[in-house]
Amino acid sequence: MRKIILLLSLFLLIPSMASARFGTGIGITFPASSSGSSAPQSTYASLTYEQIAEELSIQETHGRLQLEFKITNTSSIPYSLQQKTSQIYDIIITDKNGKKLWQWSDNMAFTQALTTVVISPHSTTVYEAELDSKTYRNIKEKAVLATAYLLNSPCKLSTKLPTHTATHSTPVLIHGGVIIGN
Question: Which partner for 91 in 23, 102, 104, 138 could form a disulfide, CB atoms 3.0-4.6 Å apart?
Answer without folding.
Answer: 104
